[in-house]
């Protein structure tokens, strides 16, 4: 316990915690929409596709300035999302194959570039490999402020456009009928998704970033049927996962942050799946039992008469 | 045999083995499940290592096959409990993969098994890892594993070809005429798992996805016949392995990464120039139709 208090006393740790909390919140919020729009796995592809962008940015500038790396990551992330949509819309290849293909090819290209970066004299110490699994402990103050600020902006944009996104998610035809710019809104949502993935990769890593979009949202889905509540709950779950995962990983030496955040989120998901009122497995079982008893009783009565 | 020849042979074997399985994955829309399995296989390998305390290939194959099939079972369980399928895949594979990574960093830090190796593979060292088997001269371990898996896969596919074909194209009809659809599904998942493990040493857990999906996807755009698709996919698998190796030695970069990139380039070319389903030929057909009307 005293360890924990000591860690919390450290200003950098506190910043990192704020950063991962806001990140979890933002990805929980956007993940809910992605889940309902069945775009969860696009987040996975975008996260993997960020790797070549990061490496290209580093190869061009030769320095590890977070904002430059993030611009690179955003570019290739958006490109990957566009490629997926192009393949699906103009060939017989289905979405899952397109996602898988783009994800692995971009990641493979990223690995090629990563080996080139590591051969550079400055690249060896660049720590770009930390992007694969995330290393929140390596974040410095300015990085965290950037991350937290970006996450806050993403949350605000989503809140402002809540009504539009809601219509677009549940009834795209109706949205078009209302005269909403659906093409633009789709693009905007995809960009927000790419942005949250990109700011998350330094903390969670490219491979596991998808979990932060999917798992809190799924867990939240068990507790409510209303979109606004689901977004809030999902955001809270994401924030808890971020904070707890970061705390666990800072206890040990050199433990990656991403996996612990994911394990925390999955734990929340399992608890929700079991214990949520109404939709949880246990609640369903109890309800079934009650019905069975009532049926049996009714059946017995009928048999008597 | 020379060092380079071994790398080319092993890469091509991985290409063929993955390419053939990949066709069925694409037709059954199971690509993402294969992606998930290629991640979770890491957990199987780590567990096999922790339990047996050895890097024996046999234990790893078993561990990976078990975890691979478990992944498929978990996904099935979640999606039958009402969660949409893509999300259940996302939850299951990220969780199992995260546990694999944690176990590696905590318990297996000082051994040959490290995360980078697991992700990217190191085909450059594969020819040095020799095994003596009976009267044969010492052969690379990866070569033996890949050949064994390829032969097993081919045998299964030849034996159950009709079943695989019908369940891929029309699962309802397959069920109606009494083919055990679920058994075939898990059989395929088991094959994906052992294929992933056998290719694991050479190309790594993540890039094996490129080897699985890309050749099949390219072949899918060129033909409408399953047998031709399987053949083309195998050919693309070999081509990407060979070209990938030479690209990598030219650029002095990661071999497995180059193989994945070449796979991507082949797909892009086919996507643009395929005679019947390519982007450009489609444009021409539209133009023709426009001028005729």
From TrEMBL, chain A:
<feature type="transmembrane region" description="Helical">
    <location>
        <begin position="66"/>
        <end position="87"/>
    </location>
</feature>
<keyword id="KW-1003">Cell membrane</keyword>
<feature type="transmembrane region" description="Helical">
    <location>
        <begin position="15"/>
        <end position="36"/>
    </location>
</feature>
<dbReference type="InterPro" id="IPR037294">
    <property type="entry name" value="ABC_BtuC-like"/>
</dbReference>
<keyword id="KW-1133">Transmembrane helix</keyword>
<protein>
    <submittedName>
        <fullName>Manganese/zinc/iron transport system permease protein</fullName>
    </submittedName>
</protein>
<keyword id="KW-0812">Transmembrane</keyword>
<dbReference type="Pfam" id="PF00950">
    <property type="entry name" value="ABC-3"/>
</dbReference>
<feature type="transmembrane region" description="Helical">
    <location>
        <begin position="144"/>
        <end position="162"/>
    </location>
</feature>
<comment type="similarity">
    <text>Belongs to the ABC-3 integral membrane protein family.</text>
</comment>
<dbReference type="InterPro" id="IPR001626">
    <property type="entry name" value="ABC_TroCD"/>
</dbReference>
<feature type="transmembrane region" description="Helical">
    <location>
        <begin position="257"/>
        <end position="276"/>
    </location>
</feature>
<keyword id="KW-0813">Transport</keyword>
<feature type="transmembrane region" description="Helical">
    <location>
        <begin position="231"/>
        <end position="251"/>
    </location>
</feature>
<keyword id="KW-0472">Membrane</keyword>
<feature type="transmembrane region" description="Helical">
    <location>
        <begin position="99"/>
        <end position="117"/>
    </location>
</feature>
Automatic annotation (TrEMBL), chain B:
<feature type="transmembrane region" description="Helical">
    <location>
        <begin position="6"/>
        <end position="27"/>
    </location>
</feature>
<feature type="transmembrane region" description="Helical">
    <location>
        <begin position="32"/>
        <end position="51"/>
    </location>
</feature>
<feature type="transmembrane region" description="Helical">
    <location>
        <begin position="57"/>
        <end position="75"/>
    </location>
</feature>
<keyword id="KW-1133">Transmembrane helix</keyword>
<feature type="transmembrane region" description="Helical">
    <location>
        <begin position="173"/>
        <end position="197"/>
    </location>
</feature>
<dbReference type="InterPro" id="IPR037294">
    <property type="entry name" value="ABC_BtuC-like"/>
</dbReference>
<feature type="transmembrane region" description="Helical">
    <location>
        <begin position="87"/>
        <end position="108"/>
    </location>
</feature>
<feature type="transmembrane region" description="Helical">
    <location>
        <begin position="229"/>
        <end position="248"/>
    </location>
</feature>
<protein>
    <submittedName>
        <fullName>Manganese/zinc/iron transport system permease protein</fullName>
    </submittedName>
</protein>
<keyword id="KW-0813">Transport</keyword>
<keyword id="KW-0472">Membrane</keyword>
<feature type="transmembrane region" description="Helical">
    <location>
        <begin position="203"/>
        <end position="222"/>
    </location>
</feature>
<keyword id="KW-1003">Cell membrane</keyword>
<feature type="transmembrane region" description="Helical">
    <location>
        <begin position="254"/>
        <end position="273"/>
    </location>
</feature>
<dbReference type="Pfam" id="PF00950">
    <property type="entry name" value="ABC-3"/>
</dbReference>
<keyword id="KW-0812">Transmembrane</keyword>
<dbReference type="InterPro" id="IPR001626">
    <property type="entry name" value="ABC_TroCD"/>
</dbReference>
<comment type="similarity">
    <text>Belongs to the ABC-3 integral membrane protein family.</text>
</comment>
<feature type="transmembrane region" description="Helical">
    <location>
        <begin position="142"/>
        <end position="161"/>
    </location>
</feature>
């Amino acid at each position: 316990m005293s360890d924990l208090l000591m860690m919390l006393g450290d200003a950098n740790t506190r910043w990192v915690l704020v950063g991962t909390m806001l990140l979890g919140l933002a990805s929980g919020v956007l993940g809910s929409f992605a889940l309902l729009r069945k775009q969860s796995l696009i987040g996975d592809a975008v996260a993997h596709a960020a790797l070549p962008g990061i490496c290209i940015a580093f190869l061009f500038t030769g320095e590890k300035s977070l904002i430059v790396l993030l611009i690179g990551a955003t570019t290739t992330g958006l490109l990957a999302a566009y490629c997926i949509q192009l393949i699906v819309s103009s060939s017989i290849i289905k979405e899952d194959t397109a996602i898988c293909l783009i994800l692995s090819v971009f990641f493979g290209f990223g690995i090629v570039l990563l080996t080139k970066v590591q051969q550079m004299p400055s690249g060896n110490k660049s720590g770009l490999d930390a992007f694969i699994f995330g290393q929140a402990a390596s974040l410095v103050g300015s990085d965290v402020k950037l991350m937290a600020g970006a996450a806050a902006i993403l949350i605000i944009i989503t809140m402002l456009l809540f009504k539009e996104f809601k219509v677009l998610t549940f009834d795209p035809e109706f949205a078009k009928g209302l005269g909403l710019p659906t093409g633009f809104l789709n693009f905007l949502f995809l960009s927000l998704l790419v942005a949250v993935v990109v700011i998350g990769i330094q903390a969670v890593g490219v491979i596991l970033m998808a979990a932060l979009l999917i798992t809190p949202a799924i867990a939240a889905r068990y507790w409510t049927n209303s979109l606004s509540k689901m977004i809030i709950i999902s955001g809270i779950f994401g924030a808890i996962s971020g904070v707890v995962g970061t705390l666990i990983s800072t206890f040990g030496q050199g433990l990656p942050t991403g996996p612990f955040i994911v394990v925390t989120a999955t734990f929340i998901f399992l608890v929700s799946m079991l214990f949520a009122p109404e939709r949880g497995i246990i609640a369903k079982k109890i309800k079934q039992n009650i019905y069975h008893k009532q049926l049996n009783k009714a059946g017995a009565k009928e048999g008597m008469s | 045999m020379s060092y380079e020849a071994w790398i080319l042979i092993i890469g091509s074997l991985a290409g063929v083995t993955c390419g053939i399985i990949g066709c069925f994955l694409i037709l059954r829309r199971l690509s993402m499940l294969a992606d998930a399995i290629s991640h979770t296989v890491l957990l199987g390998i780590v567990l096999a290592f922790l339990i047996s305390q050895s890097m024996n290939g046999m234990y790893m194959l078993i561990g990976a096959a078990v975890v691979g099939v478990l992944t498929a079972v978990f996904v099935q369980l979640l999606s039958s409990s009402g969660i949409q399928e893509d999300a259940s895949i996302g939850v299951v594979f990220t969780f199992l993969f995260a546990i694999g990574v944690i176990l590696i960093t905590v318990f297996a830090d000082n051994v040959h098994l490290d995360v980078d190796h697991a992700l990217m593979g190191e085909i450059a060292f594969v020819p040095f890892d020799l095994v003596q088997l009976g009267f044969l001269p010492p052969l690379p371990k990866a070569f033996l594993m890949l050949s064994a898996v390829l032969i097993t896969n081919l045998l299964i596919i030849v034996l159950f070809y009709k079943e695989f074909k019908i369940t891929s194209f029309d699962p309802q009809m397959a069920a109606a005429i009494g083919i055990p659809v679920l058994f075939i599904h898990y059989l395929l998942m088991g094959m994906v798992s052992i294929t992933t493990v056998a290719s694991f040493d050479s190309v790594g857990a993540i890039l094996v996805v490129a080897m699985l999906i890309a050749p099949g996807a390219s072949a899918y755009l060129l033909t409408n016949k399953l047998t031709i698709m399987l053949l083309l996919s195998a050919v693309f698998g070999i081509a990407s392995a060979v070209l990938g190796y030479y690209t990598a030695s030219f650029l002095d970069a990661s071999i497995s990464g180059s193989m994945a990139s070449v796979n991507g380039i082949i797909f892009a070319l086919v996507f643009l120039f395929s005679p019947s389903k390519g982007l450009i030929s489609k444009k021409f057909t539209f133009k023709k139709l426009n001028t005729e009307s």
